[in-house]
Amino acid sequence: MQREQLGNLGSTNGMKFQKAESDLDYIQHKLEFEIMKSLPDNPAAEENPVTLLEELSVVKSRYKTLCVQLEKVSIEQRESMNCIRAALENTMKMVQALQQHTDLEESRSLLLASHEKRRLPLSEDEQAAAQQLTCQTAKEMKSLVEEPFSSESTVPDSTEESQFKPLTEEMLMTVPRSIRSTVKLADLNNFYRELFNHFVVNKNRAALSVSQMNKMNMKATDSRVRILKELSIVELDKQGNVKLAA
Fold this sequence. Notes:
Blueprint: H1 2-38, H2 50-118, H3 124-150, H4 159-162, H5 169-173, H6 177-180, H7 185-201, H8 210-215, H9 222-230, E1 234-236, E2 242-244
Antiparallel strand pairs: 1-2
Helix pairs in contact: 1-2, 2-3
């Protein structure tokens, strides 16, 4: 629901900016027409409307800049919501596993307590049921411990992987602030690792577009690509496609 609300908010704001820009275009053209119709053939310098039209152009430029900034904010919001959703899903899985483990323990305890109260030996079927509950409890606990690790993206353990060197804060600080201001080092390293695995570990050679990278769940953004380009880690071809620098 929050994701839909954020998406609707970004879409609504974008439509408002587009409408404002269209309105400004209409006003500018109408002013030009009215001025040309009303002014004499050779107007005096003080009657020249160029200044007014230039101010309108500046306002239009500012609106375009705001539209670009809004799009970047929307992308960051979507990424944040995806991270929050993934963390919430993992938490819910752990809670469900704990609940199942608790239920199994209660069933086993009730079974044993019942026979302890009667002081009778367990039948073969009851012994098998108790043993099954014990094994199932052990499996649940094992999966509860291993699941958070298995849910993370795994990378082949290879010689190529050992060559990967994460970026440091010092390296990031060498990039102009205007490029790196919205990018976190951890997110940048995750993106860099995905590229490294694709091109080095998996030995792919074809350059990737931003849309192709996002289809592969690399979470690519223009800012992250530009930072890696500034650090000479990636290079772009004429179409803007990305590959690791030679």
